[in-house]
Amino acid sequence: MSSVPILKPKSRPAPHQDRSRSFAALSGSSAPAVFAAKLENVSLRYGRGEEILRDVNFALPAGSMSFLTGPSGAGKSSLMRLMYMALAPSRGLISLFDQDLAVAAPPLQRAIRRRIGVVLQDFSLIEHLSVFENVALPLRVSGTARSVYTPDVIELLDWVGLGHRLHARPATLSGGEKQRAAIARAVIAKPDLLLADEPTGNVDPAMGARLIRLLTEMNRMGTTVLIATHDHDLIPGGARTFSLKSGHVEQIG
Ligand SMILES: Nc1ncnc2c1ncn2[C@@H]1O[C@H](COP(=O)(O)OP(=O)(O)O)[C@@H](O)[C@H]1O
Ligand SMILES: [Mg+2]
């Protein structure tokens, strides 16, 4: 099988390296993070509802690849929302790249957020942009020149089987095509932490295996990866695995 395109060595600096430098300046430290994410006694409730996460303790060592399983409704997506800062915990401590979010000033929070790639269950593609423009967006935002990112975006979209859909609008894509576009957008800027919420829920098993391989190769290049899935068949033997049940997270593999 062909190698994953954007992971080939490049002569230019990767955009995330530039971002790491500005992050280091903001956080006053250039030491590499020990943990990409760490949750200590974290609880979460929506409004006045029950706590759906209770005293969750778990950590993703920098450079690790892990799976998060649990039945539908267990709170996997909610846990991920905490980790990409879309939600704040009701109780407990969350740190990302060894920075305590509760005391991080807004510019540092934004710098942290820019180091995280997310694949959401509902894809969250921007409807008025083409597939190409959706996937190029993280690079455009980071200031990469169009002439530099265009070949990378096309190559990655080819690799996930969307080379013929570059100019399509998200509304005209199938669920599986949207999922592949969402994954391409999440990995194109080589984030330091990649959170993928049921990333293969809409594709056939062969494409599912190909997408997991993409995430695995991202991990080999240094990205910390967390994949949430209710599908145990997706989890390779021996993988670092957490189970979320009744509000608690437990390491099961
Ligand atoms: N925005 C929300 N407001 C209120 N309750 C929510 C919201 N999102 C999720 N929930 C509830 O939180 C629980 C966990 O949901 P979710 O995190 O989506 O689980 P999973 O991803 O494991 O299926 C469910 O009971 C769900 O109904
Ligand atoms: Mg979910």
Topology:
Layout: H1 15-27, E1 35-45, E2 51-61, E3 65-69, H2 76-83, E4 91-96, E5 99-100, H3 106-114, E6 116-119, H4 131-141, H5 146-159, H6 175-187, E7 193-197, H7 205-220, E8 224-228, E9 240-245, E10 248-251
This protein binds adenosine-5'-diphosphate and magnesium ion (MG).
Which characteristics define this entry?
alpha/beta; Rossmann fold; six-stranded mixed beta sheet; 7 helices; 33% helix; 23% strand; globular; binds adenosine-5'-diphosphate; binds magnesium ion
Give a description of the structure.
The chain is globular. The chain has helices at 15-27, 76-83, 106-114, 131-141, 146-159, 175-187, 205-220; strands at residues 35-45, 51-61, 65-69, 91-96, 99-100, 116-119, 193-197, 224-228, 240-245, 248-251. 33% of the residues lie in helices and 23% in strands. The strands form two sheets. A six-stranded mixed beta sheet has the order 6-7-8-3-9-10, with helices on both faces. The protein has a domain at 13-125 and 190-251: 3-Layer(aba) Sandwich (Rossmann fold). With 253 residues, it is α/β, with parallel strands linked by helices. The structure holds adenosine-5'-diphosphate (ADP) and magnesium ion (MG).
